[in-house]
């Protein structure tokens, strides 16, 4: 005869998944599926799916949905009040356990930086430091992370003001036009180009809306204004082929020969070295007062693995910027 299952065991068996509860608590806290997705570094669809499954398992609506606005129902408020502290306690315990691994470093970067700068360098880092485990968190909203998702290192253009973080400049901004070799052959070959001549052919444009972690103040209008002579004779109409707030998409389109793009040196120099992109003119804008910063949590500073990562990062940044150390505000060909 089977032993009767204790009441506590039955409750555990019927308990919703922690993943669903985490999504629910985060969405309730911010009253937004979108912001919950950013905080948890997942898609909004994943948040919606987890909450729908939670509602189905409980057979009750947890949120009232009005357009994009959500609010807790009475049942949702009961569940939130009961589960918030428990979820936070579990998260704190997990963080404490995670940090017992003295070789693990949590690094927070933007999507663009992760895709176009960090990803190609990680294999060499892992080969050089096989004992260091990296936790890479990719998000555009560094300072809106839950307080329990506290990175050791943040690389960003917008340093935090919290006293527990130390800030040091990593490298400054350099911006110049790039295009594919095929685009150059088709539109610019055998021409003595001036900076504004690039605007006579299709350009790829970083949108004014939704820009993140890329130099917001530089676009083709800035390029045109910088190199105009001032007499009105060289004013050219924009010839826009594509506009997007996703810089990764624009780089891919430039590689595909769809137009000329303003390239941030740290995001396109590898493509130039590999021959996928080229500089059609030697002109560049160099901003010595605008930086990407290395932000370090003070608890991470004494750790050997942090010091090794920081030295490696500075080596990579130094090699990348070696041709731009003594360059002025702007160079013209």
UniProtKB/TrEMBL annotation:
Keywords: DNA-binding, Transcription, Transcription regulation
InterPro entries given in the database record: LysR-type_TF_proteobact-type, LysR_HTH_N, LysR_subst-bd, WH-like_DNA-bd_sf, WH_DNA-bd_sf
Keyword Transport: no
Residues in HTH lysR-type domain copies: 16-73
Pfam families: HTH_1, LysR_substrate
Family: Belongs to the LysR transcriptional regulatory family.
Name of this chain's protein: LysR family transcriptional regulator
Organism of provenance: Paraburkholderia podalyriae
């Amino acid at each position: 005869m089977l032993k009767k299952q204790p009441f506590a065991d039955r409750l555990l068996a019927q308990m919703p998944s922690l993943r669903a509860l985490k999504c629910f608590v985060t969405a309730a806290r911010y009253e937004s599926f979108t912001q919950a997705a950013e905080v948890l570094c997942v898609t909004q669809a994943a948040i919606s799916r987890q909450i729908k499954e939670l509602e189905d398992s409980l057979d009750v609506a947890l949120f009232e949905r009005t357009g994009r606005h959500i609010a807790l129902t009475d049942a949702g408020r009961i569940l939130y009040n009961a589960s918030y502290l428990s979820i936070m306690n579990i998260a704190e315990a997990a963080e404490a356990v995670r940090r017992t691994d003295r070789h693990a470093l949590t690094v927070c970067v933007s999507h663009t930086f992760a895709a176009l700068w960090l990803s190609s360098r990680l294999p060499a880092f892992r080969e050089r430091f096989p004992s260091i485990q990296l936790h890479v968190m990719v998000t555009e909203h560094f300072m809106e992370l839950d307080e329990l998702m506290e990175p050791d290192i943040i690389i960003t253009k917008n340093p935090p003001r919290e006293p527990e973080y130390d800030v040091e400049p990593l490298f400054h901004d350099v911006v110049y036009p790039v295009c594919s070799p095929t685009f150059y052959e088709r539109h610019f070959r055998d021409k003595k180009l001036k900076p504004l001549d690039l605007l006579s052919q299709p350009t790829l444009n970083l949108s004014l809306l939704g820009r993140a972690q890329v130099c917001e103040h530089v676009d083709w209008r800035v390029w045109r204004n910088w190199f105009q002579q001032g007499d009105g004779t060289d004013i050219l109409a924009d010839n826009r082929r594509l506009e997007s707030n996703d810089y990764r998409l624009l780089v891919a389109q430039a590689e595909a020969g769809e137009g000329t793009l303003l390239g941030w040196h740290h995001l396109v120099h590898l493509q130039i070295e590999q021959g996928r992109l080229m500089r059609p003119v030697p002109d560049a804008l160099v901003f010595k007062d605008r930086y990407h910063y290395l932000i370090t949590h003070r608890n991470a500073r004494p750790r050997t693995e942090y010091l090794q990562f920081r030295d490696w990062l500075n080596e990579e940044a130094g090699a990348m910027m070696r041709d731009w150390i003594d360059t002025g505000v702007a160079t013209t060909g």
